[in-house]
Amino acid sequence: MRRVERASDGGFTLTELLVAITILGIIVVAIGAMITTAFRTSTSVSAELQGSRGPKVVSRYWVPDVEQAKSVTAPGTGCVTEGTRIATIVSHNYPSAFVDGADPSDSAGQDRTVAWSVVTNGQRHQLVRNVCDGTTTTRNVVVSDLKDVSGNPSVEVSTAPRFTITVTVPDRSRTNEEYQFSVTAMSQVTTTTSTP
């Protein structure tokens, strides 16, 4: 008589199962380490970007404000009385550069006042820009998180018609670190005056 062999049941042996669990554990640990590193890097990069955003936004507003200025005073008065004023810029408000009398050195046109201030919002100090032109006031938060130090930010008016704003923001990715940057613009109006 011949012995008939049965087909395999298709199951795993204990050795195969242990090898598979070991390999799976190694893969899970490696993926977990990659995810943890990605989260740490993402937080650090986000903090770095927030710090580097400040100079761009300040430049976007400071340079055109100063270029059109008839006068720049630090701290100045008028317009909105929100927060601690650091600079007041008065310029002409023309509907278009192509209208008659739109030359900034011309005395025609309606004046507008731009007030740069430091405003405390909860635990944070913000650099705020208020534009008053006639009947409307527009408010922009230029920097949402300033370093809490006396005299921050500061405006240098002694080198008129070149005006510099210096701002310090905290580096949230490192303890007790900060970013400090300066933005300089030159007034294009020949009658620019400055008052320290």
Helix content: 25-40%
Q: Strands of the biggest beta sheet: in what spatial order?
A: 5-4-3-2-1-9
Task: Find the count of extended strands (DSSP E, 2+ residues).
Answer: 9
Shape: rod-shaped
Structure write-up:
With 196 residues, the chain is an alpha+beta fold. It has one domain (41-195). Helix content is 28%, strand content 37%. The chain has one helix and nine strands; from the N terminus they run H-E-E-E-E-E-E-E-E-E. The chain has one helix spanning 14-67, and strands at residues 69-73, 84-93, 110-121, 124-133, 136-146, 154-156, 162-170, 178-186, 193-195. The strands form two sheets. A six-stranded mixed beta sheet has the order 5-4-3-2-1-9, with helices on one face. It has a three-stranded antiparallel beta sheet with strand order 6-7-8, with helices on one face. A hairpin with a 2-residue loop joins strand 3 and strand 4 (124-133). The longest helix has 54 residues, at 14-67. Residues 190-194 have low confidence and may be disordered.
